[in-house]
């Protein structure tokens, strides 16, 4: 936003030469104006605020989805890591709410909204590319507040790797062709899982880390691609800074998701990460427990199959 503003000016009374309108604390008005601009045509409207305030914007977002308007909704401060602003400004259930629209179709049969939560700067660039190419529905970009470490490049270019995000979900890190475990996330939690996967490798456990920027895009891919990324019945451990339900469908029937089941708290974000367990070491501890649970679930499924055959 700051970079764009340096190349233009703010629209003011009597001076409409700029391309930037400061709405103030009025998110619903902002969303409605962006919709009107999209209906008028000739420009690409983008509007931004804290993700928690998407609640105020929901009527405008829903109408944009209903009318197929290519508005770009940019929501930042996407998790409890807002820190000292406290739980009133920390979105926990908002991602689950907005992704429900991804499961709906517009009257014309298009996906009603595209929701993208990128994992690093390269994925953010790809997300913006997808947003500009998406002309049949609004796009939501869900971005962090804190700095995020860029993911390691797998094939020489991190941006080229991130282009696979166009398929909704892809492998960002793995050690071994047949993983013992799939670690699943989107947004800022992906880098935490990469750190955990590296620690698991030292324990001789082969892990695959999957970044799922958009379940809707992933579900639109051929079944063989979906299966190649998230094999059916494989052990999948998800990590999300929101409600667990955001990843449960992707994790599958034998998967498990670590998520938030409470409102946030007021503290520096690194303290909150430690308090709520969003650290690589805690993920490793969850893996140890989950793999035992997974084996027990397989044992129970095997008993059911034997009983059914009998």
Looking at this protein, list some descriptive labels.
globular; alpha/beta; 42% helix; 13% strand; 310 residues
Helix content: 40-55%
> How big a fraction of the residues is strand?
5-15%
Strand order of the largest sheet: 5-7-6-8-9
| Overall morphology | globular
Distance between the termini: 65 Å
Q: How much is the radius of gyration in Å?
A: 21 Å
Major sheet characteristics? 5 strands, mixed
Q: What is the total tally of β strands?
A: 9
- The parts where pLDDT drops under 50 for at least 5 residues are none
Topology as a string of helices (H) and strands (E): HHEHEHEHEHEEHEHHEHEHH
**Structural class from helices and strands?**
alpha/beta
Helical region count?
Answer: 12
Mean of residue pLDDT values: 93
Written account of the structure:
This protein has helices at residues 2-5, 27-40, 54-67, 94-102, 121-133, 158-162, 189-202, 215-219, 223-229, 245-251, 269-276, 280-309, and strands at residues 46-50, 72-76, 114-116, 139-142, 169-174, 181-185, 207-212, 236-239, 256-258. The chain is an alpha/beta fold.
Describe the structure in brief.
The protein is an alpha/beta fold.
Task: Give the topology, please.
Blueprint: H1 2-5, H2 27-40, E1 46-50, H3 54-67, E2 72-76, H4 94-102, E3 114-116, H5 121-133, E4 139-142, H6 158-162, E5 169-174, E6 181-185, H7 189-202, E7 207-212, H8 215-219, H9 223-229, E8 236-239, H10 245-251, E9 256-258, H11 269-276, H12 280-309
Parallel strand pairs: 1-2, 2-4, 3-4, 6-7, 6-8, 8-9
Antiparallel strand pairs: 5-7
């Amino acid at each position: 936003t700051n970079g764009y503003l340096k190349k233009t000016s703010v629209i003011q009374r009597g001076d409409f030469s700029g391309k930037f309108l400061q709405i103030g604390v009025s998110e619903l008005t902002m969303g409605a104006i962006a919709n009107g601009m999209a209906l008028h045509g000739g420009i690409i409207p983008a509007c931004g605020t804290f993700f928690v305030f998407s609640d105020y914007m929901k009527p405008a977002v829903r109408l944009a989805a209903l009318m197929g308007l290519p508005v770009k909704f940019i929501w930042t401060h996407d998790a409890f890591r807002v820190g000292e602003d406290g739980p009133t400004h920390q979105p926990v259930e908002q991602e689950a709410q907005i992704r429900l629209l991804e499961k709906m179709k517009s009257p014309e049969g298009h996906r009603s909204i595209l929701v993208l939560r990128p994992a690093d700067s390269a994925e953010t660039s790809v997300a913006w590319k997808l947003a500009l190419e998406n002309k049949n529905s609004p796009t939501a970009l869900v971005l962090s507040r804190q700095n995020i470490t860029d993911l390691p490049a797998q094939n020489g270019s991190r941006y080229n790797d991130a282009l696979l995000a166009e398929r909704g979900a892809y492998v960002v890190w793995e050690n071994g062709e047949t993983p013992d475990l799939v670690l699943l996330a989107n947004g800022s939690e992906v880098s935490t899982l990469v750190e955990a996967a590296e620690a698991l490798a030292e324990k001789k456990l082969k892990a695959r880390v999957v970044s799922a920027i958009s379940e809707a895009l992933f579900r639109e891919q051929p079944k063989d691609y979906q299966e190649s990324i998230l094999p059916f019945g494989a052990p999948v451990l998800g990590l999300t800074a929101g409600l667990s339900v955001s990843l449960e469908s992707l994790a599958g029937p034998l998967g498990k998701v670590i998520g938030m089941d409470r409102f946030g708290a007021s503290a520096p974000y690194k303290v909150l990460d430690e308090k709520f367990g969003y650290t690589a070491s805690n993920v490793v501890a969850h893996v140890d427990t989950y793999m035992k649970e997974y084996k027990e679930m397989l044992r129970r499924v095997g008993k059911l199959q034997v009983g059914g055959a009998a």
